[in-house]
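Issue 218. Parser rejects a valid record. Input:
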Amino acid sequence: MYKLKNLPEQMEDALFTRLYQQYAPALLTHFVVNLPSRMDAEDLLLDVFVKALEHQALLSTFSLEEQRLWLWRVAHNRQIDYYRRTSHRKVVTLDEVAEMLYEEDERAPERTALQHEENRTLLLHLKRLPRLQQEVLRLRFVNGLRSSEIAQLVGKKDGSIRTLISRSLNLLREIYSREKEE
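Output the parser choked on:
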């Protein structure tokens, strides 16, 4: 254990133990909630208490409230440092890597050809819809507009647009169903 010159060992241990027992659970909870992984939270908690260990002589001169505030300030600063470090590097999870590999598989020539065929079929079916339904679906799913925004563009009420989108999608499903039966 790190030794301080001015404090007897019993006082040093008692102060650090009390600080850890009293504030570690709350600090860990704070870090877990605000950081992407529990391991990062535990690392920051360790950093906070290493700093407390290094500054025990100073902490022993503080009141209980000042000690609490000091620990939370150190925790806050460590968290800011963490965000600064991680904002410069991209962290990729295993799930993201698996998804990237799956996407690469999706780009295989056979899949690309099938996707093009599906897109052509969808376009043919969309052309069978009335002009307003085609426009509303394009604005919703291609342009990503909300129904209220579409309503303003086409001069209709929001509820009417939502109904029109629903009916258009149902009509497309019906067209696909009829095609499969043939």
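Fixed in the parser; the record now loads. The chain is about 80% helix and 0% strand.
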